[in-house]
Amino acid sequence: MTVPQKPVRAAGCVLWRRAASEDGLEIALVHRPKYGDWSHPKGKLKRGEDALAGAVREVAEETGMDCRPGAPLPTAHYLANGRAKQVRYWAAEAVAGAFVPNSEVDRLLWLSPAEARCYLTHERDRPLVDALLAALHLA
């Protein structure tokens, strides 16, 4: 009998900032060269790390941005490399910082919500854009 493995725990944010665009905001997406994808900033939690603290840490590591976390957003559940993965998300406003490319993330784009939906590589990430807009009462 095999014992089921615990899911890989991860956390991230749908990072946003105010903008002069039609929607009044822009969403940050990161490009990860290892996977060749565009996604919301996220990553695995360290042992014993609180999910929200991990989400804020991952945003800082991947985008260079300090953020103010807000409403929780839907949790994503999917398989990654044959293992169950659970990613908790929060809305987070970028408040300061600057992006510097690194080995994990080589590009960052600030996009309108409509553009962000189109750029996101994985279908599972698109509903998070709508969840952010609903959390900010813009939907």
Topology:
Elements: E1 8-18, E2 25-32, E3 37-39, E4 42-44, H1 51-63, E5 65-80, E6 83-97, E7 107-111, H2 113-119, H3 126-135
Parallel strand pairs: 1-6
Antiparallel strand pairs: 1-2, 1-4, 2-3, 2-7, 5-6
Helix pairs in contact: 2-3
Describe the structure.
InterPro entries: NUDIX_hydrolase-like_dom_sf, NUDIX_hydrolase_CS, NUDIX_hydrolase_dom, Nudix_hydrolase_domain. It holds the Pfam family NUDIX. Residues 6-134 form the Nudix hydrolase domain. This protein is an alpha+beta fold and 139 residues long. It is 22% helix and 44% strand. It has a single domain (8-135), classed as Alpha-Beta Complex (Nucleoside Triphosphate Pyrophosphohydrolase).
Low-pLDDT sequence parts: none
> Which fold name is given in CATH as the topology?
Nucleoside Triphosphate Pyrophosphohydrolase
Overall pLDDT score: 94
Helix content: 10-25%
Number of strands: 7
Amino-to-carboxy terminus distance: 48 Å
Query: Given the helix and strand composition, which structural class is it?
Result: alpha+beta
Looking at the overall shape, the CATH architecture is Alpha-Beta Complex
Continuous helix count: 3
Q: Quick one: CATH class? A: Alpha Beta
CATH homologous superfamily descriptor: Nucleoside Triphosphate Pyrophosphohydrolase
Q: What fraction of the residues are assigned to beta strands by DSSP?
A: 35-45%
Shape: globular
* Series of H and E elements: EEEEHEEEHH
Estimate nothing, just give the exact number of structural domains: 1
Radius of gyration: 15 Å
Biggest sheet descriptor? 7 strands, mixed
